[in-house]
Amino acid sequence: MTLPENLKYTKDHEWIRVDGDTALVGVTDYAQGELGDIVFIEIETLGEVLTQGDIFGSIEAVKTVSDLYMPAGGEVIEVNEELGDSPELVNTDPFGKGWLIKIKLSNTADLDTLLSASQYAELIEA
């Protein structure tokens, strides 16, 4: 299982990669493995300003549907359109082509509450 060191993680298994005042958000390799084959992703929050912990969409696998939570507050400025035709990108490349949304951060202090790669590893190994 891969855990890039340059990302921050949530206890709900989302990751965030910050680049200035914007960030990409996705689900972790662990999460996609637990979910199984991803068949559909629904994100209808484009243009909305959400706070940390808010639900920004849902991810559907063969065996379950799970909510997706904002790792940090911000405006959803882009949705990964490739996932409409290829939701399995979340399974095959969760930290790359399988990203879910791009946000414009509104509260960078939220990032201080997230987990490092080593802290997240401890969480999922517990």
Q: Which SSEs are present, and which pair or pack?
A:
Blueprint: E1 8-9, E2 14-19, E3 22-27, H1 29-35, E4 38-42, E5 49-50, E6 55-61, E7 65-69, E8 74-79, H2 82-85, H3 89-92, E9 101-105, H4 117-125
Describe the model.
The strands form two sheets. A six-stranded antiparallel beta sheet has the order 1-2-3-9-8-5. A three-stranded antiparallel beta sheet has the order 4-6-7. It has helices spanning 29-35, 82-85, 89-92, 117-125, and strands at 8-9, 14-19, 22-27, 38-42, 49-50, 55-61, 65-69, 74-79, 101-105. A hairpin with a 2-residue loop joins strand 2 and strand 3 (22-27). It is built from four helices and nine strands. It is α+β, with helices and mostly antiparallel strands and 126 residues long. It has one domain (8-109): RNA polymerase II/Efflux pump adaptor protein, barrel-sandwich hybrid domain (OB fold (Dihydrolipoamide Acetyltransferase, E2P), Beta Barrel), CATH 2.40.50. The two termini are 15 Å apart.
